[in-house]
C-alpha cells in the first residue's frame, strides 16, 4: 500500500519538511526546517565555526585585532604551539582568519579575523551570557 502524502518528486530532497508549528524566531527560514542536521543549516554552520577546543578563546583574542603567533601564545600560555597552529589553520581554511606574512628575518606572521570571523562576535557574546545563565540555574 502506497502512502501518497509521504512521497515527494525526485527533485525534492528530504532536507526540509513542513511543520505546522515552526517557531519563527528559532526557525525563521527554510534552511533550518529539517529533521536532521544539515551542512547548510545556519545553526550548524555557526556551531561548526566555533567548535573545537581553544577555538572560542582564539576568536576572542583575535576580536581585539591582528595578533602574531608569539603574542597568541603569550595570551593563551597553556595552548601548545602545535594546537595553536592547527586551530589557526582550521580557522583560515574555514575563511574566518586571514594570514599576513611580513618580510624580514625572521618572517613575521600576523593573524586577523576576516569579515566572517568578526561576524561571530555576537554569537560569542550570547554564548557567554547563556553559559552564565546556565551556571546560575544549576
Task: Describe this protein with a few key phrases.
138 residues, mainly alpha, Arc Repressor Mutant, subunit A, three-stranded antiparallel beta sheet, disordered N terminus, WH-like_DNA-bd_sf, transcription regulation
How does this model look, in words?
The protein is mainly alpha-helical. It has a single domain (41-137), classed as Winged helix-like DNA-binding domain superfamily/Winged helix DNA-binding domain (Arc Repressor Mutant, subunit A, Orthogonal Bundle). It contains six helices and three strands. It has a three-stranded antiparallel β-sheet. A hairpin with a 5-residue loop joins β2 (97-102) and β3 (108-113). The chain is elongated.
Low-pLDDT windows of residues: 1-15
From the alpha carbons, calculate the radius of gyration and give it in angstroms: 20 Å
What distance separates the N and C termini? 51 Å
Query: Which band does the percent of strand residues land in?
Result: 5-15%
Domain HTH hxlR-type: 41-138
Keywords: DNA-binding, Transcription, Transcription regulation
InterPro entries: ArsR-like_HTH, HTH_HxlR, WH-like_DNA-bd_sf, WH_DNA-bd_sf
Biased composition (Polar residues): 9-18
Summary, kept brief:
The protein has 138 residues and is mainly α. It has helices at residues 42-50, 55-62, 69-75, 81-93, 115-118, 121-137, and strands spanning 67-68, 97-102, 108-113.
Summarize the topology.
Elements: H1 42-50, H2 55-62, E1 67-68, H3 69-75, H4 81-93, E2 97-102, E3 108-113, H5 115-118, H6 121-137
Antiparallel strand pairs: 1-3, 2-3
Amino acid at each position: 500500500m502506497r502512502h501518497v502524502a509521504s512521497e515527494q518528486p525526485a527533485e525534492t530532497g528530504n532536507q526540509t519538511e513542513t511543520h505546522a508549528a515552526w517557531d519563527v524566531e528559532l526557525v525563521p527560514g527554510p534552511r533550518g526546517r529539517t529533521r536532521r542536521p544539515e551542512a547548510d543549516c545556519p545553526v550548524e554552520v555557526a556551531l561548526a565555526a566555533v567548535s573545537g577546543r581553544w577555538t572560542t578563546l582564539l576568536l576572542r583574542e583575535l576580536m581585539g585585532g591582528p595578533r602574531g603567533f608569539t603574542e597568541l601564545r603569550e595570551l593563551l600560555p597553556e595552548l601548545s604551539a602545535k594546537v595553536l597552529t592547527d586551530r589557526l589553520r582550521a580557522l583560515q581554511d574555514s575563511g574566518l582568519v586571514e594570514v599576513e606574512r611580513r618580510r624580514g628575518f625572521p618572517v613575521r606572521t600576523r593573524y586577523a579575523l576576516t569579515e566572517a570571523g568578526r561576524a561571530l562576535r555576537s554569537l560569542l557574546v550570547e554564548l557567554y551570557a547563556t553559559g552564565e545563565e546556565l551556571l546560575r540555574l544549576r
